Amino acid sequence: MKNTSFNLPADVRDILLTFEKLGYDAYIVGGFVRDSILNRQINDFDIATDALPDEIESLFSKTFPQGKSFGTVAVFTGERWVEVTTFRHDGEYVGARKPRNVTFSKRIEEDLQRRDFTVNAVAYHIKKGVIDLFNGVNDIHNGIIRAVGDPICRFNEDALRILRAYRFAAVLGFSIEEETRRAAIKSASLLDLISGERVREELFKILESDNPDEIWKLDEDGILSFNIAKASISLKDVAKEEIMAAFFLCLSENSRGYYIHRLRLSNEQSKKIRDVAEIDKIYKREFDRASVKRLMFRFGVNPLISYALISKEQDLLKLIKDIEYTKEPYNLSGLNLTGNDLIDAGFEAGRNIGIMMKNALEHCIEVPKDNKKDILISYLKNNAL
Fold first, then answer.
1. Quick one: 213 exposed, middle or buried, by C-beta within 10 A (0-12, 13-18, 19+)?
2. Of 338, 339, 385, 329, nearest in space to 361 by CA
3. How far apart are CA 267 and CA 252, in angstroms?
4. Measured between alpha carbons, how far is 30 from 380 in angstroms, rounded to an integer?
5. Contact, 361 vs 332, CB < 8 A?
6. Which positions ≥6 away from 74 have C-beta within 8 Å?
7. Is the pLDDT at 5 greater than 60, yes or no?
8. What is the spatial distance between Cα 274 and Cα 381, in angstroms, rounded to a whole number?
9. What is the rounded CA–CA span in Å between residue 208 and residue 215?
10. pLDDT tens digits for 7-56?
11. pTM value?
12. For 226, 325, 370, 382, which has the most beta carbons within 10 A of its beta carbon?
């Protein structure tokens, strides 16, 4: 593919030409070649070069030492930040995640051989064309995720690559080459060494892909144990904003709790997941209007809508929207009555006011037309505790 033309933005091309004019070797690496061949949208432009980090900084007016000790300097083009990294050898890996140190190199070939998968180990030079040492272009065309070199070594170096293999397969619609898959299964226990944040990032990218149901292959292959309890939901049919809650709804209660903790979800995310799961336990299709309003009071509207969207409960969704449209009260803020109104009407101030307000709400949930101040005060006086 030496003569293949790639659509490089002018500002990125200018970085490459700057290196070229000054006698340095520089290539576009990472996903650029892969995504160009696949006609996918390209958002990131990563450059590898034989220039040292200090030299990179000296060549461009605005830079940031993003990971300078590992050879990476971010260069601002006026339109975007572009990561520029010196060719390198990785030293001994620690914690199944990162090299203890790196050694800078002068050859692109040495830099490419340390990369994770063949589809990501293809480089492009504006004059030399494509550098493809590991048959990555062929794997791109054939839709295959294959480790560079020995897959066991690649996964022992960085266990997160196990999840990245499944993530790339889901995002690109590829399949994992069998030897690479077997090595991933054999090395799966190394994922215990990877932080929850990193695991979460990979899992969520799978869920956000066009093939979210591919996440279950992690369970099928024994990479992660999800203990699936509700497999009837097709994640592909779930709206993107509900995909995380839908995934957790499919898990058993114990597994759900484990992954909420393992992935270090925020309090907001955790609450939504637990609320949707609790609604799933409670909700029955024969629920009447008042029962749905009680659910809206207990959980709020958004978790109930999320559950309805995930479970394709169209009748529930329609009922929630109708209750909101008609402004029927389902919480205290929806009452045409306040605690001060009750005090003015002669009710004793204190905790009984709260009880009376709840009694008024319960009455209005059953009889929404009575949501008027005078009617509610009269009702409470006639039904005082």
1. middle
2. 329
3. 20
4. 70
5. yes
6. 63, 64, 65, 66, 81, 82, 83, 84
7. no
8. 39
9. 10
10. 889 999 999 999 999 999 999 998 899 999 999 988 889 999 999 999 99
11. 0.88
12. 226
pLDDT digits (tens, 9 = 90+) for 174-191: 999 999 999 999 999 999
Crossing angle, helix 289-299 and helix 267-282, to 10 degrees? 160
Amino acid identity for residue 176 in this structure? I
CA distance 217 to 169: 11
On whether the CB atoms of residues 227 and 254 are closer than 8 A, the answer is: yes
To the nearest 10 degrees (0 to 180), the angle between helices 301-311 and 314-325 is: 150
DSSP 116-148: SBGGGSEEEETTTEEEESS-HHHHHHHTEE-BS
Q: Under a CB-based contact definition with an 8 Å cutoff, are residues 372 and 331 in contact?
A: no
For residue 179, give the nearest of 213, 207, 145 by alpha carbon. 145
Residue with tokens 């749905």: 292
Tally of CB atoms within 10 A around 106: 12
Q: For 234-259, what is each residue's pLDDT tens digit?
A: 899 999 999 999 999 999 999 999 99
Asked if residue 342 lies in contact with residue 378, where contact means CB atoms within 8 angstroms, the answer is: no
Q: 289: which residues sit within 8 A by CB, 6+ positions away? A: 319, 323
CA dihedral defined by 164, 169, 170, 174, rounded to 10 degrees?
170
Report the distance separating Cα 370 and Cα 97, nearest Å: 63
Cite the DSSP H helix spans in the chain: 10-21, 32-37, 53-59, 108-112, 136-142, 151-157, 160-172, 178-186, 196-207, 216-220, 243-249, 253-262, 267-282, 289-299, 301-311, 314-325, 339-344, 351-366, 373-382
